[in-house]
């Protein structure tokens, strides 16, 4: 089992969610976050004053998947989140040792 953590642009969330549903993903956790990567933020003009926005709004997705779905989920996120511009995001994959469903007591792939 794997935990996929993806950081994407907020306006791509609906497209990514639909792409993941097409692959068979039934659930995910979504968090609104702020951050920056290589783009290092940008400057904005507000009431005649220029200021630097260091942290840009992003969305973080966390999805637990079985090993069999891993490549298809990564491909779905990559295709639907991509705009071709700086700041499209990142996908991180980590191992999940255990998963437990609290309500039923199921463990492993059955708990996902």
Observed structural traits:
37% strand; two-stranded antiparallel sheet; 112 residues; four-stranded antiparallel β-sheet; Alpha-Beta Plaits; single chain; alpha+beta
SSE arrangement:
Layout lengths: L1 E7 L4 H11 L5 E7 L6 E5 L2 E5 L2 E10 L4 H12 L7 E7 L17
Characterization of this structure:
The chain is α+β, with helices and mostly antiparallel strands. It has one domain: Alpha-Beta Plaits, CATH 3.30.70. Helix content is 21%, strand content 37%. The protein has a 4-stranded antiparallel β-sheet with strand order 2-5-1-6, covered by helices on one side. It has a two-stranded antiparallel sheet with strand order 3-4. A hairpin with a 2-residue loop joins strand 3 and strand 4. Helix 1 packs antiparallel against helix 2. The longest helix has 12 residues. The termini are close together.
